[in-house]
Amino acid sequence: MIHPDRIAAANDTAEGRLSADYEALGAHLDRRGIDIAAIKAKVAGYGVAVPSWGVGTGGTRFARFPGPGEPRDIFDKLEDCGVIHKLTRATPSVSLHIPWDAQPAADLNSKAQEVGLTFDAMNSNTFQDQPDQALSYKFGSLSHTDAATRRQAIDHNIACIELGRQIGSKALTIWIGDGSNFPGQTNFTRQFERYLDATRTVYDALPDDWTLLTEHKIYEPAFYSTVVQDWGTNLLIAQQLGDKAKCLVDLGHHAPTVNIEMIVARLTQFGKLGGFHFNDSKYGDDDLDTGSIDPYRLFLVFNELVEAAHNPDFNPMHMLDQSHNVTDPIESLMVSATEVQRAYAQALLVDRAALAECQEANDALMATTLLKAGFRTDVEPILAMARFEAGGAIDPVAAYRASGYRAAVAAERPAVSGAGGGIV
Amino acid sequence: MIHPDRIAAANDTAEGRLSADYEALGAHLDRRGIDIAAIKAKVAGYGVAVPSWGVGTGGTRFARFPGPGEPRDIFDKLEDCGVIHKLTRATPSVSLHIPWDAQPAADLNSKAQEVGLTFDAMNSNTFQDQPDQALSYKFGSLSHTDAATRRQAIDHNIACIELGRQIGSKALTIWIGDGSNFPGQTNFTRQFERYLDATRTVYDALPDDWTLLTEHKIYEPAFYSTVVQDWGTNLLIAQQLGDKAKCLVDLGHHAPTVNIEMIVARLTQFGKLGGFHFNDSKYGDDDLDTGSIDPYRLFLVFNELVEAAHNPDFNPMHMLDQSHNVTDPIESLMVSATEVQRAYAQALLVDRAALAECQEANDALMATTLLKAGFRTDVEPILAMARFEAGGAIDPVAAYRASGYRAAVAAERPAVSGAGGGIV
Amino acid sequence: MIHPDRIAAANDTAEGRLSADYEALGAHLDRRGIDIAAIKAKVAGYGVAVPSWGVGTGGTRFARFPGPGEPRDIFDKLEDCGVIHKLTRATPSVSLHIPWDAQPAADLNSKAQEVGLTFDAMNSNTFQDQPDQALSYKFGSLSHTDAATRRQAIDHNIACIELGRQIGSKALTIWIGDGSNFPGQTNFTRQFERYLDATRTVYDALPDDWTLLTEHKIYEPAFYSTVVQDWGTNLLIAQQLGDKAKCLVDLGHHAPTVNIEMIVARLTQFGKLGGFHFNDSKYGDDDLDTGSIDPYRLFLVFNELVEAAHNPDFNPMHMLDQSHNVTDPIESLMVSATEVQRAYAQALLVDRAALAECQEANDALMATTLLKAGFRTDVEPILAMARFEAGGAIDPVAAYRASGYRAAVAAERPAVSGAGGGIV
Amino acid sequence: MIHPDRIAAANDTAEGRLSADYEALGAHLDRRGIDIAAIKAKVAGYGVAVPSWGVGTGGTRFARFPGPGEPRDIFDKLEDCGVIHKLTRATPSVSLHIPWDAQPAADLNSKAQEVGLTFDAMNSNTFQDQPDQALSYKFGSLSHTDAATRRQAIDHNIACIELGRQIGSKALTIWIGDGSNFPGQTNFTRQFERYLDATRTVYDALPDDWTLLTEHKIYEPAFYSTVVQDWGTNLLIAQQLGDKAKCLVDLGHHAPTVNIEMIVARLTQFGKLGGFHFNDSKYGDDDLDTGSIDPYRLFLVFNELVEAAHNPDFNPMHMLDQSHNVTDPIESLMVSATEVQRAYAQALLVDRAALAECQEANDALMATTLLKAGFRTDVEPILAMARFEAGGAIDPVAAYRASGYRAAVAAERPAVSGAGGGIV
């Protein structure tokens, strides 16, 4: 782990500049009638979960190019996640993926406590076959034509809940790859009926204070049809299952050009927005770093969240979900956590009373200018000051690079050689 | 109108070839265990509505290039629609658009009877301002921020119902252009609340045996957000309003790559598929002739319809909705009616028992081959024979061209000069 | 026109805040090693052309909803364009569209001088039929199968050049709608051969110091194929015609998800980037205000332009091209000119030496962070100060609204009633 | 291998029906003035290459689900390819992928002769790291910033040529994954310069009678930019390198909605169409079975090829390139070879003289009807008869299933267990 002295040393050189920038921004916001301290307090209270699998190098179906010091298991992963939170103070929890991270609850809890983290939503996996698995998911899992295969998938999800209970998780996220590659391969209706039946059984096993998050995705790994292909189907699922069932929105899982912030608004309006997987995409489910391609879209999503925040029951879960193919995963996750905070801070700056007036008066130009006024404000000093005051790094990437952490773990953890993806 | 003798003369030359083709196809289908006469009977019983506006030349925002003999009013349009049905025997009804076609019910009924047609769904128009209109729809209609404007739109829709009752229509189709062109211009949630409120008032004015069809569209004329942007929102509308409210699917109104046949299946499964606007698209809402770009997609939609047909309550409405920019609209509509029939006939040929078995066994290759076996069968002889036996033309376009109808109406109806579209 | 006193009065109230913001930004940039005055000087020297048609309210194929005070002719349009430049100091030239703006050169020159503007590229129009036109463009213009129609289109383009010479223009922009709506309607190859032949005749009539800009567009008004559908075909045109022929990139004319900044880089690399039509889009050719949907994409385009600026021969033309359907066109154009300047200023802030080092070292995270450091800087004080020092308004929209200009012209210019678009 | 007696036995039961269908189709085509024997002869002369990697089960980044009897090496793969050709008589050659298939030329030649196949284009691989590889392709290969890495990639390509010479190949296909995942990660221009330099070195090593095929792809595995992203860049490459360099078009490598047949026409017109990778896609590079999603699009591509066939120098290479994730790869490849033949046969049926007349007269409706007349003809009897007469199976899938080949090789070849894709 990174020693606090390291962080303090890195902050020493940056503190003067930060103070000047923060003071100037405070004065500027004051001229706009905004109290910088209030914004900073909200930012400081914000956290986004890190996915355990995100600290390993990702890959494509063509190849995976590992980096030095790849985590060997969930304990290494928690170590890496701890570093991210230590430096950013923005990622207090980790989301586990089972069976990849399946370990005794006591060991998980102990390690989490050691690195100062808690556990977010549990993620089940019925889109791959595991070595010891009786029945294959080649043709589906929760929606498989074979009842025994569905049962196997149900049991796995219930096991995830069981482990989750022991480590303080409060949600299960189900994403499946079930679908088809050919017109006619499946009967859309019967397949969805099977899905609903199976998922209801999982739902029934859910503790009262848990949420079931189902995740839609337009395509991949299925390339003609996917059972939970969009928010319409996802909404139907949540409606059919009950109050504890809500929809998870992954920003990269929609058709080209779709207005995602509007989907966020619709699900919010009908009480079915359960959470997010933040990332960014240019083409398909690219799983790029959140805000790296279209930062304004991310802002517009947060604009909806701030808009809805007056409702005390509105409390969707926030998680990063990215594939880090060409960067150090720890660096990408630190920057991404910051980008999510940034969008949040910018959305907080929007003058909502004035916006409502413009909307009522159909003053489109002024309404959009109000959003832009929030978006184009450089809130970096707020984010940095919030980190600094919480003991984190003013510049997390610089502090991380200076710390030598990657080299240190690379010395401990065995090198992994490059490998082809799914196509070979 | 086209005299039956004309049709008979055209058929005379084509009949021999048709008989040979029909007989050969009958023999072939017999080898596949299919009774050609049964298929022909279903095709003969199938009809698709023609939109009154479809017989005029369409245009884009850049220009409209009228052809000779453009219809001057709804009576000319009904005349043209009569020709289409006379030749194809596949388009027994016409869908009116108000106020374009607003005329005394008695006159409409009388003309319809004269040309042998009935009236399909009524279409309201709150996406344009009419010369005598009190309030503008520039910033919306049923979802406008101004209550008086919403009321005006509601009243217009109720007037459409009233006229529809008098001419035997049983459905009102609502498509609105409401949305926004800038992030922030509208509050998604409040806009949708206003839409639901206003539309509920229209719904409440609906006779018991009527259906309210709402139509979703991803974009255009609004270019950042649209109130009823996709089937998810459309489904919410139908759920909120009640049993008489159903969703209309226009094949050109979806995001790129979206699996439309799956949407058809989902709406069917939950009892909310109300009807179709058939057309084809390559890029956006191109309103091209149905089946002209991707005929297999059209077939896959009909595959769902045939799959669902065992349910006696399943009875969605079928309508063409195209913009004919470079063809004689009558020719395009005749060919399009035939293409819809073709997809239906091909879907009827699919061996559904075998398909269900393949699906159950996850035999993807054989399942898709069974669909293709239906699709690649050349059912033209079945369609032609059904037309012929019903008094229509074996080759409608050839008969139409031979008839001189276009030249005749061009002599009667004044020429319309070319004009710019919305951009000038 | 807006009196300078008006502007001065508006600036009086804003100047104090601007000074404070500018000073603070100067201090911040100084801490980053950047001289704010140098950036301001470049911004002050930057201008973007306004399209004459942009000051009228746009429309869609469904409808056009005019606003008060619509310009009646090119002289009204120049008046409006003068206001935009007066307030923003960023739009020194106007691009004409013929025949919409065809007037005696002397009158155009005199009016332009009066309002303080010059003339940018000439735009021809062979995508609409004009009342007095001998042959129709319904089936194409420069690529029409009929030689006389092609000749008519050629002659029109040559007439545009002729008028342009008399008013100081140095470029002709050709955008045509030629294409097809059905597979098979045209022979792709012969159609393109005809296009190249016809365009070569126009090219040959070009003065030596002129540029011919051809513009690609994936679709609309043609919905199956378009002759100049993408930059590949556009490049072939420029290669075939010669050195004076270059490609114009309209940001809204590409397929979904396409990387536009990369096209800019490729055309630049091969000496064929001729100019831009700036606007923004979410779905198709939405012609929304530039930077209103994806401001980072606009920044990335300017990042390429700044990257290429070391080449003294690199001098593409910059023009806005938008459709203002729901805003006051003058306001939209003022904001848009500012947005283009903003992207330019942000791109100027990127540390290019550090960027090149990161690129060489494959430090993807730091490279993209360097771009973001430019993008997220709030350069508004630089833009505002540049305007202010040049006699423009610190807040152009506020000054414009305060001026009462729109009400004044609405009193003079007759009201235009709402009208349907191309579809009726 | 499958014994001819097996095929004969399977054909015995199908021959009667085929004869009847073929005779009926012959009579029908005769009524349309088409000689069925001439079409059959062209179909019989047509062949499409099979990719060696296509006979293994494919996968996605999420998982790969192998089937029984997966080929262990290139010799097993050639065995499987031999079966495909034996049954379909449509796949006379195999395209190798190096290093996956790198084996002594003598062994390859001997095995190919044994199974009755020849070798098509060679495919290099610089998108993965191999165990014994000195330098990583994580950040690129032919366009890498490091000269030694580029040299390694060049040498590998030259080695592919060398092996290809010894086994009778006449082409090298280069597809690389080089690109970037973040704005700013690479300098577009310098990266492309490096690519051109490196590829020129490969080109210079090409024998005189060889073709260099470069393949464009919009995205994946790079998710922000790809060096050879579209046909425009691909064309530039072919232009820069010389006459032996041509463009390869993979049907799944384009942006959504792009008109691929038009790209085929453009590259043909300028002498730069080198070959195809046939497959189908609904969303991204789905690598689905060719013709399984949009068979009309495949037909329209072949329509261009038949249109261009009058040029004796026009001879692009044809290859399948698919990922078979849920089917028996041998079955998918047999069906796909048939689909390609089908599109070719249908395109041959188009009345080109009549089509040219309609195009000249702008008779869009009749022109497209002429294409449809070819497309909707069920040419299966022609394909089946061509296979039958050449010693293949009338119904290849039925014959294959009856043969027990899969079970036989599954008994010989060790089972492969399911595995995650690139993401774990």
Automatic annotation (TrEMBL), chains A, B, C, D:
PANTHER family membership: L-RHAMNOSE ISOMERASE
One Pfam match: AP_endonuc_2
Name this polypeptide is given: Xylose isomerase
Gene Ontology MF: a single term: metal ion binding
Xylose isomerase-like TIM barrel domain boundaries: 96-287
UniProt xrefs under InterPro entries: L-rhamnose_isomerase (IPR050337), L_rhamnose_iso (IPR013451), Xyl_isomerase-like_sf (IPR036237), Xyl_isomerase-like_TIM-brl (IPR013022)
Signal sequence region: none
Lineage of producing organism: Bacteria, Pseudomonadati, Pseudomonadota, Alphaproteobacteria, Rhodobacterales
Keyword set, alphabetical order: Isomerase, Manganese, Metal-binding
